[in-house]
Known about the structure:
alpha/beta, two-stranded parallel sheet, six-stranded parallel sheet, 15% strand, Rossmann fold
Amino acid sequence: MSLISDWASQRVVVTGGAGFLGSNIVSELRSRGAREVFVPRSATYDLREPAAVARLFAEVQPTLVIHAAATVGGIGANRSQPGTFFYDNAVMGIHLLEEARKAKVEKVVVIGTVCSYPRVLPVPFSEDAIWSGYPEATNAPYGIAKKVLLVQGEAYRMQYGLNTIHLIPVNLFGPGDNYNPESSHVIPAIIDKCLDAIGNKSSAVHLWGTGRATRSFLYVVDAAKGIVDAAERYDDSSPINLGSGEEISIRDLATLIAEITGYTGTFAWDSAMPDGQPRRLVSTAFARSALGWSSSTSLRDGLRVMISQRIQQRVGS
């Protein structure tokens, strides 16, 4: 088994470590005493190229790799670039695990996605249900690319003894999220639309879908703690969900964001646009039993922090 008790002795590579989730993982690692944390940048190490991954491992000689790098986006981005979302996410992970086993890296933590679960599944989703059907079509290429890495990790553990674990976080949110309208997820998109409507004195905000689909959101700081907990304490091929246990409809989410931002207008729902997966909520029982981890930040509290930061950013821009 490869369990970690002394972070000061670890050399850690965090792919995607400058991104939304990755930067929080780096902060959590440092708070626990990790001194050598390396964040490869794509301009120097293109993880889609095996030679670049091999060079990264040769130069850094990590004892632990946390693979948080991903090409991600909301429904619109997934619909417009399905090939990119499949290729980038599959090939980065495939090369990383292959080069990790060649370099004899002691442990690899792979960050998967809740989009890997079947489109229709009783909630809450348990980890053993991940093979029960095909993912939601709007993000299936991304979800399947990440699920490929679950299979690869299990196969490499069996054949080569590579200690790789696979974590499945739900939709993340929090300070530092992506507000690019071409690629943002639902929470930052609604926040900016509400703030724009307030600034423009608009009485209506237009949103995709019917608003009836449900989602579960996990505060990014809590996710980072769960990921580092798993790096410390978990050594098995079975995946682990990381979630909040809260389920909310997109319609109720919009209402909550309106309340916190101070938007008092209405929402116009475009039912011609897709809702995505009908319901999304994962079981967190395994995370509690295997890691002793659970989220500690409610959706409302996390949104308050996130919206406050976003308002400050917009005022200062």
